Amino acid sequence: MSLKNKEYKERLVDKKVSDYLSVFGAVSIEGPKWCGKTWTALNHANSAVYLDEEEVREKAKLSLNLILNDERPELIDEWNLFPEIWDAVRRKCDKTNEKGNYILTCSTKLTDNEQREKIHHSGAGRIGRIHMHTMSLYESGDSTRYDFNK
To answer: Which of 21, 23, 131, 147 could form a disulfide with 100 if both were Cys (CB 3.0 to 4.6 A apart)?
Structure first.
């Protein structure tokens, strides 16, 4: 069961997300605002938590168990608003051999200071990073040409 919106258009990145979910405990989809990260993540997720909601962030500060669901993969949207979740997800990935537990999305990059102060591990081997771009003309159906040489 995915949370896929019926208006969702398949993206070239969808295959990569599926592949990464089969290899890593978590996937981080990164890219500019409004490129479709959340919709793409929802296409692959079975549950979601939105950290841009104040109440959810407050619960997360008390305990991540209050916000994380059992339905995996779980989308954790705008994780950058509570950066400590990165290390928590990495630890949860260390505790299981299961792949495809979490999908992290964010639009705003953390400053170097925030990264040093709030994130203590790169996530290497546990969190696969995917950079997403805005929808191409090929993906939107406005062009039939796709450059496979990229």
So the answer is: 21
Residue 34 falls inside a structural domain: yes
Contact status, residue 82 vs residue 43, Cβ threshold 8 Å: no
pLDDT tens string, the chain, 150 residues long: the values are 556 677 778 888 999 999 999 999 999 999 888 888 999 999 999 999 999 999 999 999 899 889 988 799 999 999 888 888 888 888 888 888 899 999 999 876 655 555 556 555 555 557 899 999 877 777 777 777 666 555
Assigned domain for 150 exists: no
Q: Quick check: 8 and 39 in contact, CB under 8 A?
A: yes
Cβ–Cβ < 8 Å for 10, 2: no
- Residue 21: which CATH number? 3.40.50.300
pTM for the full predicted model: 0.82
> In this structure, are residues 92 and 101 in contact, taking their beta carbons and an 8 Å threshold?
yes
Q: Please indicate, yes or no, if residue 66 is contained in any of the structural domains.
A: yes
Instruction: Give the residue numbers spanning the domain of 87.
Output: 13-140
CA separation, residue 61 to residues 1, 50, 88, 112 (Å): 29, 14, 12, 22
